[in-house]
TrEMBL record:
Superkingdom, natural source: Bacteria
Classification via Pfam families: DHquinase_I
Nucleotide-binding as UniProt keyword: no
Protein name listed in UniProt: 3-dehydroquinate dehydratase
Enzyme Commission number(s) of this protein: 4.2.1.10
Keywords, comma-separated and alphabetical: Lyase, Schiff base
Organism: Luteolibacter arcticus
Gene3D superfamilies: Aldolase class I
Catalytic activity annotation: 3-dehydroquinate = 3-dehydroshikimate + H2O
């Protein structure tokens, strides 16, 4: 079993993205991300630089990730990706885990759908067991687009299995030896664990 079904290339983490260091990984669809600094990106790249990075890979992208709050400042690249039929994952990250984050997610998902996103993704640091239920519970609400939800921190691993069981799409794990978020599973382990825990919850 391959370790993953889709690869995410974090353009903001690459020293020399123009050398296309992902080129040898042919055969798998690629999601390209150029993360903004205040949502976990490296180098605090400007919206112009992030747009330029994404525009340079649109022809080979299966999907692109742009933070919901960057939709306005990166409208140009979103228009180009839409014209090419490349879907947009609208994302949002809360590394602190603020108490009001769970309640904000449905409205952000609605906003993402209206703005043309194919999926809304939120990663939130979890502090308490009750946070697990709040996060996975969002997947039982009717919303106009698929959700990709995951926890960060000590409860991240269990949250990622729970959310996958409740229908979260795009479940992230790392390749190599460096997680890109606190509490991320390795991709191979996550895929095996999700497969082993497919018990048909709705
Ligand atoms: O947004 C996400 C999700 C993520 O932050 C995670 O929590 O696994 C990992 C990032 O690489 C990715 O861009």
């Amino acid at each position: 079993m391959a370790a993953c079904d889709l690869l995410e290339v974090r353009l903001d983490l690459l020293e020399h993205p123009e050398t296309r260091p992902w080129a040898h990984l042919s055969g798998l669809p690629i999601l390209f991300t150029a993360r903004r600094g205040d949502e976990g990106g490296a180098g605090d790249l400007s919206p112009e630089r992030r747009s330029q990075l994404l525009e340079s890979v649109l022809e080979e992208a299966a999907l692109i990730d742009v933070e919901l709050v960057s939709a306005g400042e990166m409208a140009g690249v979103l228009e180009k990706s839409a014209a090419l039929g490349v879907p947009w994952v609208a994302s949002w990250h809360d590394f602190e885990g603020r108490a009001d984050s769970f309640g904000k997610i449905p409205a952000m998902a609605e906003q993402a759908a209206t703005a043309g996103a194919a999926c809304f993704k939120a990663a939130v640091r979890l502090h308490h067991m009750a946070d697990l239920a709040k996060l996975a519970g969002l997947l039982t609400q009717p919303l106009p687009l698929p959700l990709s939800l995951m926890g960060m921190g000590r409860l991240a691993p269990v949250s990622r299995l729970l959310c996958a069981q409740y229908g979260s799409v795009l479940n992230y794990g790392y390749l190599g030896d460096a997680p890109t978020a606190p509490g991320q599973w390795s991709a191979g382990l996550l895929k095996a664990a999700v497969s082993a825990s497919e018990i048909g919850l709705t």
